[in-house]
Design goal:
alpha/beta, seven-stranded mixed sheet, about 550 residues, 16 helices, homodimer, 25 strands
Chain lengths: ~550, ~550
């Protein structure tokens, strides 16, 4: 027997209409290339969104087709988010920093009809345009005064001119909540990028889950500055969840790494909450400490995308009275999986006691089901000790990559995140490694990351990496690979001794090799794939451990 | 084109499993008839829920069938909520205070298979049992020691004995999110009660919406004491939304109107948030003021069910540092429609400036679409002046009453709430009347409630009511009906003069009639229906206004 409540769809259109009606006077402040301080209201924004929807229809884009964006965080990008998705088209946000061949691949794979781009990305596409035969036109997100003087891009359109003559009313289609709303590609270290195709339903549910008090805790009294790019998983959804609660939005455009601009925006707009990767917080901290400025309105910042070093927590708390909260997720999770707030019994703890909790990635958000499993897919206990592969399920978790032939999840419907973690009795997950990097020694798992962290504390080590190498008896054993500090010549025995008492004895690397340089990926991470190739035929120097 | 995220259903089962897994050590504290201080954890609760699910299956209740409860707020009632709904059955919460003929009607209409009842309600059902031929058994929610010595109820079962021998594992069915989860009847002033049949989907979405920071703002650090009965619209959903965020629950059982018990629970359990009707707050305030106690942990209370008088806001704020927040909704809305928190520009206002805002019913929660319309169903502006019938839409709003032949909403899908309100430019709704009580004079609407409020401020008036009576020229005009204070004899002219300068001149009642007594309904409200019958042939005493 079915319930008899209204069967109304969960759509981004409804969030937009709600925000327009109830919070029409909330503000959106942007830094753009053509205006260092653009300010308007939700009502203004959604009026232009309706003009843009008319323009998209006039351009002949059809429901279900993709429209690409290469853009930073500003009001025009926000307008595109809503106009494209609420028209029943797919908003394909593209990371402009990808390699040219990756850009070419994803634009063609998505079959983007039009590309909307910031002026600064015109050269990026000029170099690619001949390999993008299906793109019908390029819309530069600026006004006529700031259009490039000349360009080899065909059908080059000015954003402001595109929408200027359009009516500001639009008859939004009634969408099925399962309709695709947006598309974001994730670039792994191997193979082509893979697209994650979000639906209106998954986006709205993610909004509700991520706005809860123990997630971002968004309210209409917040002034939210998303520093995470809108080309990274919809800017963690803040461009939807902010309007859902009527929060003021502050969008720093291309100035996302500029501590001074961030500080100015925070203080002039009274930002209460911001979100971004640790690098951004280091930039902001650096500026604040150098300039002696304070950020009194800022209450909390969400950090994600990479583990956040403890000094970032400490410096923000001690010098600026700002609480740093970790979150964890990924493109395949819309992105939010866990968020770190304190449980009630921890509130009265000393800062020293709170620190180990804060360094964890947090508890699952209601809507995300999570487990850790061993090599045989057996579920492991939540005891803070057992570490296993993290698997997730939920209505905002991926089922299948865009245009893939098979599901991305296992037979029981779980998506394997590729992360290895422990979960403690209070539900806090702590990432210990990536699945592909964890070292499987005698049926037990050793965290390569933890070993690297220990190695890096040795005064003679410039850089260190740990990989698993084949071992006759233990299947794999950890190999420490080290770049010594310039002018220093530590011995292997000396460095291995450094692990004594710092990790379990069976975790201590089996051997240490010195190299002149450790290979890195394009995004600056250690390329363990290359290291594993290099040491694939490695012969262990002695027989310890047997 | 559909998105490719997991198509997982929104079910109460998933909330339960999540709360069990992530927040298993959160507490539930209850006052029951057999235990003044019962305390256990979510993990304990859900273990017993699984035992209860096994028992329900053994009793032969089938998916889609109703199981009734006549019970106060305590842990056994919570167990029933989850065991029944997550088994695919319908949890039919029954208001034990209804008239016997209403109880008979709804129990038979719902076809309740079993009734679960508190000991205190055994006599209520004993008087009815002969007229409930389909009920297969009666389960008294207590242990063997507290079972009634004898009873005419057939197949009388003890709750604790029912579940004692059952396994604490249960294979929960995979439910469609549209499956019915619970049923609550609303008793209007005319006709039989009407059932509202909630679905798992509507319940989960209501949970998300009502937990947001500008709604109840629930976090895992909250200690929530729902004083609104669990037989009233699922206790405003707090029995679901609390576990969703891991909040500690404090359930006062039959002591909901006992200020001393409430105060003790608040202070011993460190309650941060409570929710109930204004009567409860008066009881609590009365006790606090008499006893001189404070409630330092209590941060905010939600008041709903009736307009909250200003002194309740003021006394809680000034004497106890507690913020009172209004909410508005109804059984047909799960129940939450609006919630009252301040907009950012109001935060710095003086308390005097905030008061008129706080007295409004609040802004729509994201998920609830709202409009006000005039007699011709034309939408009215949100200007804080125009008042019209409130209509709502949303995924937790009723489509059709249980077993009804037609929809409860209009052709465009809007449900008419029966309330008349203004909505201001900031989105705050203020109820001015009930649709059936508003006086339609010359095409304009006059609020009967506002006139009654003015009349009640006259020192010689004991009770006053205002109804619309037929008028040749203006269609309707307001008639003031007054019970004078004992020993006083005010004149009609004197009372009508009291309205001068307090309301618009055309709102001033056309005449005043004195009565010995004003008729009331069973729930203590003025019965305007009876008054309208009594004055249906009323002849206006003079020709003013023509």
């Amino acid at each position: 027997m079915h319930g008899q409540m209204m069967n109304l769809p969960l759509t981004i259109t409804n969030i937009m209409k709600f925000a327009d009606k109830v919070y029409g006077n909330s503000e959106i402040v942007s830094v753009t290339a053509d205006n260092p301080y653009h300010r308007y209201t939700y009502a203004d924004a959604f009026r232009r969104v309706r003009q843009l929807a008319n323009a998209l229809a006039r351009l002949g884009v059809e429901p279900g087709q993709c429209v690409g964006t290469l853009a930073m965080n500003d009001y025009r990008h926000l307008e595109l988010y809503y106009a494209i998705s609420c028209s029943g088209m797919v908003c394909h946000t593209i990371n402009p920093r990808l390699f040219p061949e990756q850009l070419e691949y994803i634009i063609n794979h998505a079959e983007d009809q039009y590309l909307f781009l910031d002026v600064m990305f015109v050269p990026v596409l000029e170099r690619l345009v001949e390999r993008l035969p299906r793109v019908k036109g390029f819309v530069v997100m600026t006004d006529e005064a700031h259009m490039p003087a000349s360009s080899c891009l065909p059908n080059l359109i000015c954003y402001e001119s595109l929408i200027a003559g359009e009516a500001d009313t639009f008859d939004w289609p009634e969408l099925d909540e399962n309709e695709a709303s947006s598309l974001c590609y994730t670039s792994g270290t191997t193979g082509n990028p893979k697209g994650v195709l979000y639906s209106h339903r998954s986006t709205v549910l993610h909004c509700y889950g991520s706005a809860l008090a123990d997630s971002f805790g968004l309210s209409g009294r917040d002034v939210v500055m998303p520093i995470v790019p809108m080309f990274h998983v919809n800017g963690w959804g803040l461009v939807y969840s902010g309007p859902m609660v009527g929060a003021k939005l502050v969008m720093p455009g291309a100035k996302m790494g500029d501590g001074e601009t961030l500080c100015t925006l925070i203080n002039e707009e009274k930002v209460t909450l911001s979100a971004g990767v640790p690098t951004v917080w280091l930039a902001l901290l650096g500026y604040l400490e150098r300039s002696g400025q304070q950020v009194p309105s800022l209450q909390r910042i969400t950090t994600g995308g990479a583990a956040c070093p403890q000094p970032i927590f400490d410096r923000f708390r001690d010098q600026f009275d700002v609480e740093v909260q970790q979150a964890w997720g990924m493109t395949e999770m819309s992105p939010l999986g866990t968020y770190n707030t304190l449980r009630p019994h921890m509130v009265s703890w000393s800062e020293q006691e709170k620190t180990p909790v804060r360094l964890k990635q947090g508890r699952p958000v209601c809507g995300v089901d999570m487990k850790i499993v061993d090599d045989n897919n057996r579920e492991l206990p939540w005891d803070g000790k057992a570490s296993g592969a993290v698997k997730v399920r939920g209505p905002w978790v991926i089922q299948r990559y865009f245009k893939a032939g098979e599901d991305a999840c296992d037979a029981e419907g779980w998506f394997e995140t590729g992360d290895v973690a422990t979960i403690d009795a209070d539900g806090y997950m702590q990432i210990t490694d990536r699945t592909k990097d964890v070292i499987k020694s005698g049926g037990e798992w050793i965290s390569s990351i933890e070993l690297e962290n220990v190695a890096m504390t040795h005064p003679l080590v410039a850089e260190a990496a740990v990989i698993g190498v084949y071992h006759e008896k233990w299947t794999e054993r950890p190999l420490l690979v080290v770049v010594a500090k310039e002018g220093e010549s530590p011995t292997a025995a000396e460095l291995l001794a450094h692990f004594q008492g710092r990790v379990a004895s069976w975790w201590i690397p089996e051997a240490c090799e010195f190299v002149a340089e450790i290979p890195h990926t394009a995004t600056g991470k250690v390329s363990k794939k290359d290291l594993r190739v290099r040491f694939s035929d490695y012969v262990w120097p002695n027989k310890t451990g047997e």
